[in-house]
Amino acid sequence: MKIIRIILLTLIIISNSGCSYIELNKLAIVSALGIDYKNNEYEITAQVMDVTRSEGNNVKQTSLIYEAKGQTIGKAIRNLSEKYPKTVYLGHLEIIILGKETAEKKVNDVFDYILRSPEVRATGNVLVNKEVTAKETLKPQNEKENSFATEQIKSSLENGTKRTGTVKLITFEEFLQDYLQKGIDPVIPLIKINKQSDSKTSNTIIANLAALKNNKIQKEMNSEESIAYNTINGNYYDVVITPKYKDKIIGIILFNPKTKIKTELKNNKVFTNINVIIETKLNEVNFKINPNDKKTHKELEKVIKQELKKYITSLINYCKETNTDVLGIENNIYRNNYKEYKKYKDSNFYENIKINIKTKIYRSGNTNKGAV
Amino acid sequence: MLDKIIETMKKDFKNSPDIIFRKVKIKKKEILLIYNVTLTNSNNINEFILEKLTTLKKRITRKNIYNHLTNIIPENIIQDVENKNDLYTKIGSGFTIVIIENEKPFAIETRQDLSRGISEPLTEQSISGPKDAFTENYQTNIGLIRKRIKTNNLVIKEKTIGKQSKTKIAIFYMDNIIEPDLLKDVENRLDNIDIDAILDSTYIKEILEKEQSAFPTVMTTERPDNASLSLLEGKICIAAENSPYALIIPTFFSDLFHAAEDNYQSSINVTFTRIIRYTAFLLAIILPAFHVAITTYDHEAIPVTLLINFAAQREGVPFPLIAEALGLTLVFELLRESDIRMPHLSGTAISILGAIVLGDAAVAAGIVSPIMVIIIALSAISSLMFSNIGMVNAIRLWRIIFMLFASIAGIIGIFFASIILITHLSSLRTVSKPYLYPLIPLDKTFLKEVLIKNPITKESKRMKILTDKNYTRSNL
Amino acid sequence: MNGKISSGQVFTTQICLIVALFPGLINILLLNISRNASILSVLIATIIGFIPVIITAFISTKITNKSLKDYMIEKLGFFGKILNLLLIIIAIIIIFINSWLTVDFIISQFLTRTSYYLITLIFFTITCWSINKGIETTSRTYFVLFIITVIIMISLWFCLISYVKLDNLKPYIDVTTNKVVKSSIIYLTYTTLPIIYILDLKHITNDKKNFKRKIITAYITASFIIITFLFLIISIYTIDLASILTYPVYSLFKKIQILGFIERIENFAAIQIIATSYIQISYLIYYLKENISKTLKLNKNKTNILTYLIGLLIPLISIYFFKNNNLNNFINILPYILSILLPILIILSIASIKKRES
């Protein structure tokens, strides 16, 4: 009896393994995906990680680039199989690059696909190239590199968020959260190709943010606006800014920003207070100062405040100009004053904004006086 | 008259050459000695019987010869022989039968020690703690336990089981701790045994393990200290003649994770080791299945760098992953089995063959992927952490079951297999007690003790499931 | 017959009876109807739910050594038989829904290319096999599984705490009162009322005194689990994203990163979702099997076959049915069907009081 049962079990196994069963070496692992929209068709550029085992057990990893077209994104991805013999697998997709046209017209299609597919993980990053197509972005930029460096891009995104403050490491999911919420316009980091004039080589760089409104990527922010955005959202770890003090440039490190946005509703108008509390320390001073001196200290703080205020005002101007709400002031009203939200829904949120910055320099580096 | 006896007995023993009949004549009275030459010590026979007969010749008269012999012979075990069957059993256990004309026959113990001396335990080795182990000698085994527990509360009940072998079996228990129901249950089961021969205590083990399971529900031990400790917990020990292993009843699942060593080490270290043992158990059972699952179904679970690495290693391997895994498991089992059977001298050859030929060369030839070798080796090593051979074999069986399920349905398959495993374990009983105690039924104080070993000063209570009196172990 | 099951096992079985439908069905219903106010509506439902729970606890004190079915027949005679039939039908319906939900969850998230029927066959063969080992064994299995589940669950909660943004909970009430009431009624019918089935365990527990207390504590614990999950979903995902996801609880697990390198653990975490469903389905199949086999007075062999018959037929039909009909079309009717349990409870409790007086 037991033997019969065991035989039955093995029979079931033998006859049925192979349904969802895919060996690892039969997968085409896509690490980056570029999506372009041209002539009412999607053009997919996929970077496939291809591994081969050469003699002596050396693993050789190469990245290959394949393209395919289709009426929808999913169809186009399936069409990739015509060119590459393995099963296309998106479980480890890390970067999605939206080309120029997609960014302008079809952003929500992309996110619908990502959200719907059980395979694609929502922890990958989205980047937008506003200038050229995604296909061009993904192509190897010079002869030395043989592929688009997904890992490098990812780590420079992370560094950019934490250390320069000009971009934001944003996953599909976080993006969707902002995208779906009432009264907040999401931002998206941009990717650029920096063509050098002297030769054929060029660099891929990630720089700055842009807001998305009505499924359309808006104008690019400059780096100051990006820093302001990240300061308000508390995204970075430490960032260097270079304000002028007594007509000379000094280096200041900002870190640990904490911001609260408070809205008040009065007389059909929205009054907003942006309260920033930020810690700072001296990074570079090229002339003699005494930071322990009370007066200098205050002056320095004042300079930092002014600089930050300038950044934030610039960001507010950006919002006014593009008519976006990246700071989520409308959302703030919706969450905190739900009852009066409807009344103020269409008012101008960026009219009356007060910026309060509190900062304290509590470190001047390893020297008290400076070498100069 | 004695000649007649000799004749019938020779017939009964079918002229076996090892049965010796010796006739002595004293004061015109014939005395017949019958013994088995292989089981008896000839020195004893010479010294205690023949020599006494000659030296005491003067005092012996025809009439008092029986009394004289039974009273004066300086041998401590002298028994009456009741009937023929008894006589044969006695000869088989190394007695010398003395038959005096017209008198009742009696038996004198002249046993020869056929077993080896007390040696170190072979399967349950330990670094600290006592180093004596049970031997094939029944009396020695009883002595080894008795010398550890000197109170008169230690009861030893003797039974004879086996129609042909007539093996003596000793049941040890502490009278003031044991739960009477448990004892009754075990005794009932032993009484109902109807078998030709008990050649080893494992025979009894198999009979007591009613439910069929790969997991051992009765533990064997060769360490008298282990046996004594179990007795003090309220368990029963069974020792059989000619067997160097004693049985511990009941054995809970958690007991399999305890080693003899645990009692002689500092409690913090033991706790750590136990956590490692539980991890090893999980690794041994689940790891290969897990590898199969994540590399063939749930690719999302592998980090990117590992994914590329695994994929590269699979490149060029001709078999499906599950075949590779099962094949390597088979290879490992072959190695283990041949290593156990081989004499120690040629054992090195096997290790070299196993390590170099089957491991390294197979990888180099591209038949198996290196990661698979690592996975199977890791799980095999983990399973060998357990000294109980039953446990090791059970792990082997379940490892394969898990692997098969993983190959049908990935991680969900592992979940299905774990439901089966948990159901199986919770359906088991050791004698009449639930196997998964103290998890089920939940006993919070001892659940802690499964994982954490308390210092001896804090082990003040006995398990409630094993005793309904005398909870307190110590008052410190 | 007496003393097979400890009170801990009753406790875990009951929690799973309540929680099982939550990750697959109820959370989406609640989030879509009452949005941010879901937590509030569950809280309200929990408080109202104490009424049926206390009634159940009261009835449990009256049952001593009879199964639920025998007790009903003793108290109500022929009418009790009808009520028993109703209980059987509702149990079948719950199995019907939950087996589809569980299998669909497995297929859609893990084994996308595998046949529904194959997974159903394997899953429910194992379930029936374990049921045939006896309630003593299965309830122990529930207990062990539940302990594993709780360990996974609590560690997940700890991992998820760092993602919580309390701001996302605001505004606390963003729907009309009607909707809050509606969702709490739905919650009540799906989760609280099925605990009537736990009464069938009373006559085989060894800790009869604590049974009443266990029912209430299990109810509170289960509500706590559900509220915690709702809290995590809303505060981490924001209601707008959460309400468009099919499996918000499962999606939450995808976010988890431990120490920066242990990520992608959602596949293992999902086991707790399946485990609770398994326990609920398995227990209800046991209930059906016991009930039917005792009515028909079957011997042991036939009972075993009956288990396989019930345990395989209902899920297979359910798979066939829901593959052709969308579950969403039936969601509106289900609360009405399940709410039949409430009058049954009340009738039973009245009957219990009456007999004592006479």
Rounded radius of gyration of chain C (Å):
20 Å
Distance N terminus to C terminus of chain B?
A: 70 Å
Unreliable sequence segments of chain C: none
* Alpha carbon gap, first and last residue of chain C: 29 Å
CATH class of chain C: Mainly Alpha
Q: Approximately how much beta-strand content do the residues of chain B carry? A: 5-15%
**CATH fold category name of chain C:** Amino acid/polyamine transporter I
Query: What does the main sheet of chain C amount to?
Result: 2 strands, antiparallel
The proportion of residues forming helix of chain C, as a percent range, comes to over 70%
Main sheet overview of chain B? 5 strands, antiparallel
Folded structure, characterized:
- The complex is a heterotrimer of chains A (about 375), B (about 475) and C (about 350).
- By secondary structure, chain A is of the alpha/beta class.
- In chain A, about 30% of the residues lie in helices and about 35% in strands.
- Chain A folds into two domains: about 25-220, no CATH class; about 220-370, GMP Synthetase, Chain A, domain 3 (2-Layer Sandwich).
- In chain A, β2 and β3 (about 60-70) form a beta hairpin.
- In chain A, α8 (about 225-235) crosses α9.
- Chain A is globular.
- Chain B has about 475 residues and is α+β, with helices and mostly antiparallel strands.
- Chain B folds into three domains: about 1-110, no CATH class; about 140-250, no CATH class; about 265-435, no CATH class.
- In chain B, the strands form three sheets. Chain B has a five-stranded antiparallel sheet with strand order 1-2-4-5-3, with helices on both faces.
- In chain B, β1 (about 20-25) and β2 form a beta hairpin.
- Chain B is elongated.
- Chain C is globular, with a radius of gyration of 20 Å.
- The longest helix of chain C has about 30 residues, at about 80-110.
- Chain C contains 15 helices and two strands.
- Helix content of chain C is about 75%, strand content about 0%.
- A two-stranded antiparallel sheet of chain C has the order 1-2.
- Chain C is mainly alpha-helical and about 350 residues long.
- The interface between B and C is medium-sized, with 25 and 34 residues.
